[in-house]
Design goal:
Blueprint: H1 17-77, E1 94-97, H2 110-115, E2 129-135, E3 141-148, E4 157-165, E5 171-173, E6 178-180
Antiparallel strand pairs: 1-2, 2-3, 3-4, 4-5, 4-6
Length: 184
């Protein structure tokens, strides 16, 4: 007769506790873990997407700053006016480049680079934003603008910095950097 089968007049042997408790614990942990994964994903994925969009927006802030410095350099290196004063104009407006804000990184073509050559701005990496400089008719003020479509939904993130020529020919920020829908 086998050890696990009861004999006449004896109660059946109790099942081993250690093994059944371990299986129950594993089942409970598996069910809880299975329920927690979607909850954690629901929190982590949007946070990650927001972080990556903010990181992409750093490109616009950095390039607007660089273009503003190049406008400053342009203003300071132009020949003096008739009375020996500073240059009287910022460069003419530079059209949005590329014309349509890209939704994937875009490497500028030779034609696009040529439009920015008077400032010396030539990005060496593909860009996620379109850039433009809009100069006032008197040449004393300009707006540096970046537009981007970070998730290809035809909604644009916009960054704008207004600048003005000071009396000494230096370029002064005319306003704070305006940001609209940074992570669109």
């Amino acid at each position: 007769m086998s050890e696990n089968q009861p004999t006449l007049g004896q109660p059946p042997a109790a099942p081993r506790k250690g093994m059944s408790t371990g299986v129950i614990v594993l089942i409970v942990l598996g069910v809880c873990g299975f329920c927690l994964i979607p909850i954690l994903a629901a929190i982590a994925i949007p946070a990650f997407l927001s972080f990556t969009r903010r990181a992409k927006a750093t490109e616009a802030r950095s390039n607007i700053s660089a273009i503003t410095r190049m406008l400053q350099h342009y203003a300071m290196t132009q020949p003096a006016g008739a009375n020996g004063s500073s240059p009287v104009r910022l460069p003419a407006s530079i059209p949005r480049t590329p014309a349509e804000p890209p939704c994937v990184p875009h490497a500028w073509t030779a034609i696009e680079l040529a439009a920015w050559s008077r400032l010396g701005y030539a990005p060496d990496l593909p860009l996620r934003y379109s850039y433009e400089v809009v100069t006032s008719s008197d040449g004393m003020h300009a707006t540096v603008r970046a537009l981007g479509d970070l998730d290809c939904d035809h909604r644009y993130a916009s960054f704008e910095q207004d600048v003005a020529l000071g009396p000494d020919g230096s370029l002064l920020p005319h306003s704070e950097l305006r940001v609209v829908d940074e992570t669109e």
